[in-house]
Amino acid sequence: METSLLDLAPITRHLRAMASSQLLIAGVHHFHMFEHLQKEPCSIEELQAKLGLKERPAMVLFPALCAMQLLNFNTENKLYITEMGKHLIESTQPNLISYIGLEKDNAGVLEMTQLLKNDGPLDESALTYVKEGDTPSVMDEEETARFFTLALAGRAQYLSPIVASKLPQKKAYLLDVGAGTGFYTYEWLLANPEATATIFDRPAVLAVAKEFLDTFSKSNRKGAAGVKERISFQAGDMLIDELPQADILLAASVFHDWPTETCMVLAKRFADVIRPGGELWVHDAFLNDNLDGPLAVTDYSGMLFMHTKGRAYSRKEYRNWFSQAGLTPTSENIPTLLDYGLISASKSAL
Ligand SMILES: C[S@@+](CC[C@H](N)C(=O)[O-])C[C@H]1O[C@@H](n2cnc3c(N)ncnc32)[C@H](O)[C@@H]1O
Fold first, then answer.
1. In terms of residue numbers, what domain contains 40?
2. CA distance to 116, 271, 280, 281, 316, per residue, from 329 (Å)
3. pLDDT in tens, 173-200
C-alpha cells in the first residue's frame, strides 16, 4: 500500500490561513482582547467572561492567538501578552493597531466577529456536515448533500491509503460512522481481504458514497472488485439511532463538527457498540494538549467554527471523553498527512 505520499499540507494551510487573519483582526479591533489582558494575566474563564464569549468561541480565539505567538500561558495556566503581543496595546509605542485596523471592516472579519459573539450563526440550517434533531440539514437535501460530500472526496481519497495502512490490519468488522464518501473503508477492506464493514451516514450522502464504491470496485487494483461484497450501507442518525456492534469503529473528521457536550454523547454511543476487545479510532486534526497551537490546527478550528457546530479539540480532550465512555485510550499519536493524525482507545476484552 502507498504510504510515502507527498504531504499536501501547505495547500490546506494556505486555504485555512484566512481564519488567522479574521481571528487576529477580530481579537484586536472587535474584542479589544489585548487591552483587557494588559492589566494582569487571566485564566481562560476570566478572559471569556471579560469578552462575553461562550466556551466554544473562546476555545477557538484564544488558542489561535497563542499559536500566533501573541498570547501564551504562564505557569499558573493564565493567558498573558507576549513581547510581540505588546505591540497590539495602545500604550506601547510603536504599535500596529491602526495598521491592522485597515482591515477591520472586511466582510470576512465582520462575519467571524458576529459568529464569535453568537457562538455560531443564528440560523442553524446554514451549518454544514451536521444533522441534529428536526432542524433541516444540507446533508439531507439531494443537491447540497452531493455538493458537500463531493467537496470532501479528494481529501478522503488522498488520505485514505495512509489512514487505512495505520488502522489495525486484521479480519474484523469495521463501522465507519459519518463516513461521507467511504474512501477510508474501501481502502481498508482492500488491504484486509477477510474483513467486512458498514458505512453509516445520512441517506443522501450514502447515494454519493455508493457511486464512489462503484468506481472503486471497477478500478484495476487487485482485489478491488471483491470489496463491494464485503460492505453494507446503513442510513441513520448517529445521535439517536441504534448503531451496529463493531470490532473497529472509525470516526474520521466527525467529532470536530460538534460541540463538546455532543462529542461526549457520541463517544459514549460509539463506546457502547464496540465489542469487547474492540477499538475506537479517530482521524482528525488535534490542538496541542496545552491549547497553544499548532497554527495549522487553530486555523482549521476557526473554519470549523464558522461552518459547523464544532471546533478542533486536543487529544487530551478526546482521551477524556474516551475514558468517561469506559474505553482505555492509548498514548500513541499517529500522524497521517495534511496536519491530521490518528488516536485510538480500546474496550477491555470480557
Ligand atoms: C465532515 S464529514 C466527514 C466525512 C468522512 N468521514 C470524511 O472524513 O471524509 C461528517 C459526516 O457526518 C455526517 N453526519 C452528520 N450528522 C449526522 C448524523 N446525525 N447522523 C449520521 N451522519 C451524520 C455527514 O453527513 C458527513 O458525511
1. 9-126
2. 32, 11, 9, 10, 10
3. 999 999 999 999 999 999 999 999 999 9
Residue 1 in domain: no
Residue 256 is among the residues annotated as catalytic for this protein: yes
Ligand 1 pocket, mutate which of 176, 202, 338 (most atoms under 8 A from CB): 202
Lining ligand 1 with CB less than 6 A are: 129-131, 139, 152, 156, 178-181, 201-202, 205, 237-239, 252-254, 257
Indicate if 187 and 229 belong to the same structural domain.
Answer: yes
Say if pTM beats, i.e. exceeds, 0.90.
yes
Comparing C-alpha atoms, which of 46, 67, 68, 70 is closest to residue 58? Answer: 46
Number of domains in the chain: 2
- CATH number for the domain including 226? 3.40.50.150
ipTM over 0.90: yes
Distance 213 CA to ligand 1 centre (A): 17
pLDDT of residue 4: 61
Residues 6+ apart with CB under 8 A from 139: 128, 129, 130, 131, 145, 148, 201, 202, 204, 205
Q: Which pLDDT tens digit goes with each residue over 307-342? A: 999 999 999 999 999 999 999 999 999 999 999 999
**Cα distance between residue 56 and residue 79, in whole Å:** 17
pLDDT per position as a tens digit, 250-290: 999 999 999 999 999 999 999 999 999 999 999 999 999 99
- Neighbouring-strand partners of residue 220: none
Expressed in angstroms and rounded, the spacing between residue 79 Cα and the centre of ligand 1 is 35
Share of the chain above pLDDT 70, in %: 99
Kindly report the backbone phi and psi dihedral angles of residue 198, in degrees, each rounded to the nearest multiple of 5, phi listed first.
-125, 135
Q: Which of 126, 152, 174 is the last residue of a domain?
A: 126
